[in-house]
Design a protein that fits this description.
The complex is a heterodimer of chains A (about 300) and B (about 270). Chain A is mainly α. Chain A has 10 helices and 1 strand; from the N terminus they run H-H-H-H-H-H-H-E-H-H-H. Chain B is elongated, with a radius of gyration of 26 Å. The chains are: A mainly alpha (about 300), B alpha+beta (about 270). The structure holds iron/sulfur cluster (2 copies). The site of one iron/sulfur cluster (SF4) has 15 residues of chain B, from helix 4.
């Protein structure tokens, strides 16, 4: 699938934002004044930046509000509704913590729950798609949670949680790459199932329907070089996991200095971008079978 | 709106005959022409006369080559038995259409009266998720209008009283010079398309996707012989029968045959 920058930014930034909201709602009730302001600014900043960049993906962003209407059936709609609900629920809580009497009863917990469900809904936009076998797997929501909880922990300065989730993230992401490579073959889709023609193995595309590119070939048949995939995985391990982990582990005892935490987060985010780019670029859509791309493991 | 109707009164769709299609792409052009001038945003092209033309199409014809799966070619392993099939592909108006349920705005919907899957372009935000959800590549986001385009089954022709009755069928069906495309109601067991499917059977595209397409693909008929065996003796066998020559003609025929045999013998 085409790794659109707007979607890479949308999923990665909103993951950070809603991850941080989850920590704030569950553990951040005691924050007041400037520290509270600072954390809420980050949470609102990242989540809104993510949501805004998703608008750049739309052909008609001026009617984006319509996307809030189909929450009964559509994961994308649910994601929008839940994201906005999270932002709204946290507003009085944030104001009260920064300028008012502090933690409001249960509002933090409700907000945290909403933030967590939002992360799941974002993942389900991808995991629901049977047509992209690499995405259609329970590991995808697990990964989206691990990304949000590691990034959120770094932003919240929670060294222990950050260390734990970073290790888990590294392991699950690597296993997912191994699982993912087999997903297309496991899906049972082949040129044969796509066309019902011929003896398996003897079928080939003689002529494409068009000589140039099309929306379909650009959007759903993005080709990625294997050696670049290896480089990006290394980048993910080095920046996304190893560097922030080293920083975090050195601060396990006390509280993290915010500059140190910021450096850890910046490294981590480079790794997130690398792996998110791969998440799109390596995902094969079954429509490619009509274009002669028999995808193998 | 984005929820699918439990059932539809009628199930309008196409029966596409893979045996008859000659791959001329006339349906592609007829579709592009009708749908650029009528329902919704035009099907735009970018760099149409440049070196990298790209454009929106609702119907595209692929061409495949394969060894047919019939026992005869299997047993003699004849490599010359390769067969070519042209494969037109457009929206199949699925009964369990994943493109409809993923739509966040309700722009994509399936009509309960006739089962046609449509996009309300006023509501479409152009997120592209429905195109991702369709296994068949039946949806294309128009680069100019930023809305999703797909086959409407020429909803603006089939019910159009301003057109002569003969034209009240999808443009692709009307134009197909080979008669490979048929339009009708699959919910009516007596319709032409239902009868065709009963007679010929039909191929379900990607059954593992569980979309339950309405459109039917009539399979190519098995070939009576492999393509290597055609040519001269095949043509000769079909030439009009000639009576055995008599008298002088019989002698001449024999003499010429000897000459032929001698000439080919001496030339060796
Ligand atoms: S063919 Fe594709 S676009 Fe058409 S109804 Fe089925 S899933 Fe939807
Ligand atoms: S592109 Fe339009 S029709 Fe398709 S899912 Fe998005 S809003 Fe719905």
């Amino acid at each position: 699938m085409h790794p659109a920058p707007s979607l890479i930014l949308f999923t990665s930034l909103s993951g950070l934002g809603f991850g941080l909201f989850a920590y704030l709602g569950l553990l951040g009730g005691g924050l007041t004044g400037w520290p509270a302001f600072f954390e809420y600014a980050l949470a609102y900043g990242f989540s809104s930046a993510g949501l805004l960049s998703s608008l750049f993906h739309l052909g008609n962003p001026q009617r984006a509000w319509r996307a809030l209407s189909q929450w009964r059936s559509s994961w994308l709609s649910r994601e929008g509704v839940l994201a906005l609900a999270t932002l709204l629920v946290f507003a009085p809580q944030a104001i009260s913590q920064i300028w008012g009497p502090g933690d409001l009863l249960l509002l933090g917990e409700i907000g945290a729950l909403l933030a967590l469900v939002t992360i799941g809904a974002t993942a389900m936009i991808y995991a629901q798609l049977k047509t992209v076998p690499r995405w259609h797997h329970p590991a995808v929501p697990v990964l989206f949670y691990l990304y949000a909880l590691s990034g959120g922990a770094l932003l919240f300065g929670q060294a222990i949680a950050a260390a734990l989730f970073l290790v888990l993230l590294g392991l699950v992401q690597t296993s997912y790459w191994i699982i993912g490579a087999r997903r297309f073959a496991e899906s049972g889709s082949s040129m044969h199932s796509a066309t019902g023609l011929g003896r398996t193995g003897s079928l080939r595309l003689l002529e494409r329907p068009h000589t140039g590119a099309s929306y379909l070939t650009k959007e759903m048949m993005f080709q990625v070089a294997r050696r670049r995939a290896v480089a990006l995985r290394r980048l993910f391990w080095a920046f996304g996991i190893a560097m922030p982990l080293v920083i975090v582990v050195q601060n396990l005892g006390g509280t993290m200095n915010w500059i140190v935490a910021l450096v850890a987060l910046a490294c981590h985010y480079v790794g997130v971008i690398a792996s998110r780019w791969l998440f799109y670029a390596q995902a094969e859509h079954v429509v490619s079978l009509y274009y002669g791309n028999e995808v193998s493991a | 709106m984005t929820q699918l109707p439990a059932s539809t009164e009628r199930a309008l769709g196409l029966a596409i005959d893979l045996d008859t299609c000659v791959g001329c792409h006339a349906c592609v052009i007829a579709c592009k022409e009708w749908n650029t001038a009528n329902y919704g945003a035009p099907l735009s092209d970018q760099d149409a006369y440049g070196s990298n033309p790209v454009g929106t199409f609702l119907n595209r014809v692929h061409t495949f080559e394969y060894l047919p799966d019939d026992p005869q070619t299997l047993s003699n392993g004849d490599q010359s038995a390769f067969q070519v099939t042209h494969f037109p592909k457009s929206c199949l108006h699925c009964q369990d259409a994943p493109c409809v349920t993923v739509c966040p705005t309700g722009a994509s919907y399936k009509r309960s009266e006739d089962g046609i899957v449509l996009v309300n372009e006023e509501a479409c935000i152009g997120c592209g998720l429905c195109a991702w959800a369709c296994p068949y590549g039946a949806r294309e986001l128009d680069a100019e209008a930023g809305v999703m385009k797909k086959c409407t089954l020429c909803v603006d022709r089939i019910y159009n009283d301003n057109l002569p009755e003969i034209d009240r069928e999808p443009a692709c069906v009307r134009t197909c010079p080979a008669g490979a495309r048929h339009f009708g109601d699959f919910a009516d067991p007596e319709s032409k398309v239902s009868q065709l499917v009963r007679e010929r059977g039909s191929i379900t595209l990607m059954p593992e996707m569980e979309t339950r397409p309405v459109n039917a693909y009539l399979p190519p008929r098995p070939k009576t012989q492999a393509c290597g065996e055609t040519s001269s003796n095949q043509v000769a066998a079909k030439a009009p029968e000639q009576p055995n020559p008599q008298g002088f003609l019989a002698w001449l025929d024999g003499a010429l045959a000897k000459l032929e045999a001698g000439a080919s013998g001496s030339s060796k």
